[in-house]
Design goal:
Distance between the termini: 39 Å
Oligomer: single chain
Order of helices and strands: HHHHHHHHHHHHHHHHHEHEHEHEE
Radius of gyration: 25 Å
Structural class: mainly alpha
Number of strands: 5
Length: about 500
């Protein structure tokens, strides 16, 4: 890369950093992010590993990182999301370097521009989950893989081992990537017929296997399970996963399909290079493996689990532009226009920075807290997965109030009934987030109390109920009903 290329990369990275830091703490933490906080909010790392991570399907590296990060920088929304934002920013130069190594500077810069402005990379760069760091490690692993195969340098082997091992301890889907990378390296070794390379290949993967041994038993146990709330996937899930990589925009998907078809036509006419084949396998094989596993032994097919394919998809898109449009000016103009479409759709079409998109735990709790002086002895019933998910915001909003009892499932309503019968409260708050109480749940409360007020936000809200004998008590204000929706899928 020449001086101008480096300047362009710096500008693209600066733009990507700005887009990832903008509004970093503006939205409420949603269910999965609060789960990360709840896992890591212990006094010692040992408690995080034994209590926070108890029966969790994810490896321990990311919770350990967030544990130490909280100790150093606090647990506000912005601070909890900052590691993901920094990792997501590093996607930009890393995919550029990977594209340059595989093809050349144009492909690297185009892929970097797409990563900088596309919704999917930005969204996961603003989430307190392991995905941003996980995909960064996968890209670094791919870069070192290419260096090992091409240059056969010792430093590349060390980098490959470190990144592969780190990825294995960050997310279970890394097993798929590392397995495919090892298989691809074996194919390259067999094709080269080199005597030295097989020993190097074997030593590299033996070291990775030994380093992963402490977690292997946990992975095997968890791999037998499934995500109980997911349906078995079908063709429409494959289409949605593809659209997820491209802002979930029909226009951008159509552009991407058109460019991929141009690339496929070139393959038919001139053949396919080893690098292009590797990227196609990287983009397709994990999707097929997860799809088959979800059909055969239990659903794990989610858009998040398939983020490992995203870098390959963007690099192939960049490659399709460079091979279809030979003139540099035309190529640069089309790439800039495509990045502009991504960015325009993000800002205007999706209203990413001006409208809330995550379940609003904070707003639901804030509504309850804003009326706690009017109803100081009210009981608060929570409808969510975890009590701590609400208590995080009660604490952050400087309220002494905490969730009185967690419901969250129909099966827990008898326990709630017993609790309310013992306490005999005058007022009862039903605050919900992520899980929406259905008519059966609302009927449970309406049979015992009178609905006084309600407020609804994005996939969250609060109901205030009053005991029949105190029906003359004032309501906290006018209701603001709206239809809750789940923005995270």
């Amino acid at each position: 890369m020449n001086r101008n290329h480096w300047i362009i990369l710096i500008l693209i990275t600066a733009l990507g950093l700005g887009l990832r830091l903008t509004g970093l703490g503006h939205e409420s933490l949603y269910n999965d992010e609060l789960h990360t906080w709840q896992q890591t909010h212990y006094d010692t790392l040992a408690l995080v590993m034994t209590k926070g991570m108890f029966r969790d399907v994810y490896p321990p590296a990311y919770p350990a990182l967030i544990y130490f990060w909280q100790k150093a920088f606090g647990d506000s929304e912005a601070m909890l999301r900052l590691p993901s934002a920094l990792a997501g920013t590093l996607w930009i130069p890393v995919i550029c370097l990977l594209g340059r190594k595989l093809f050349g500077p144009p492909e690297g810069l185009i892929a970097a521009a797409l990563v900088a402005v596309a919704w999917t990379p930005i969204y996961f760069s603003q989430e307190v989950r392991a995905y941003s760091i996980f995909v960064l490690l996968v890209m670094l692993m791919a870069y070192y893989w290419a260096s090992v195969v091409r240059d056969r340098k010792a430093w590349a082997s060390v980098g490959y081992v470190l990144c592969a091992t780190a990825a294995l301890y960050v997310h279970p889907m890394s097993v798929v990537v590392v397995g495919l990378a090892g298989l691809a390296m074996a194919v390259v070794v067999a094709a080269n017929r080199s005597r030295a390379m097989p020993m190097t290949f074997a030593a590299i993967h033996l070291v990775i296997a030994v380093l992963y041994l402490p977690w292997l038993a946990e992975f095997v146990r968890d791999a037998r399970g499934a995500l109980f709330f997911l349906p078995k996937p079908g063709p429409r899930h494959l289409a949605r996963a593809f659209a997820y990589w491209f802002n979930q925009s029909s226009l951008i998907v159509a552009i991407a399909v058109g460019l991929y078809l141009c690339l496929a036509y070139r393959f038919l006419r001139r053949g396919i290079s080893r690098e292009e084949l590797m990227l196609i396998l990287w983009a397709v094989v994990p999707v097929l493996l997860v799809f088959i596993k979800s059909i055969v032994s239990g659903p794990i097919f989610t858009n998040r689990n398939l983020l490992i394919c995203l870098p390959a998809a963007y690099l192939l898109l960049a490659r399709s532009i460079t091979v279809t449009f030979a003139r540099p000016v035309l190529r640069a103009g089309l790439s800039t226009a495509l990045a502009g479409v991504f960015l325009l759709h993000l800002v205007v079409g999706m209203r990413y920075y001006t409208a809330p998109h995550k379940a609003q735990f904070r707003e639901a709790v804030a509504y309850v807290v804003s009326h706690e002086h009017e109803f100081p002895n009210a009981v608060t019933v929570g409808w969510a997965w975890k009590k701590e998910h609400f208590d995080y915001y009660f604490e952050r909003l400087a309220s002494k109030q905490r969730l009185s009892i967690l419901a969250g499932m129909i099966q827990r309503l008898p326990d709630v009934d017993t609790f309310l019968a013992e306490r005999r409260p005058r007022y009862v708050w039903l605050v919900y987030a992520h899980l929406v109480p259905n008519e059966q749940v609302l009927a449970f409360f309406k049979d015992r109390y009178r609905l006084v007020d309600e407020a609804h936000f994005i996939f969250s809200g609060a109901y205030l109920f009053e005991a029949p004998s105190t029906a003359s008590a004032p309501a906290p204000g006018a209701s603001r009903p709206s239809t809750p929706r789940n923005p995270d899928e």
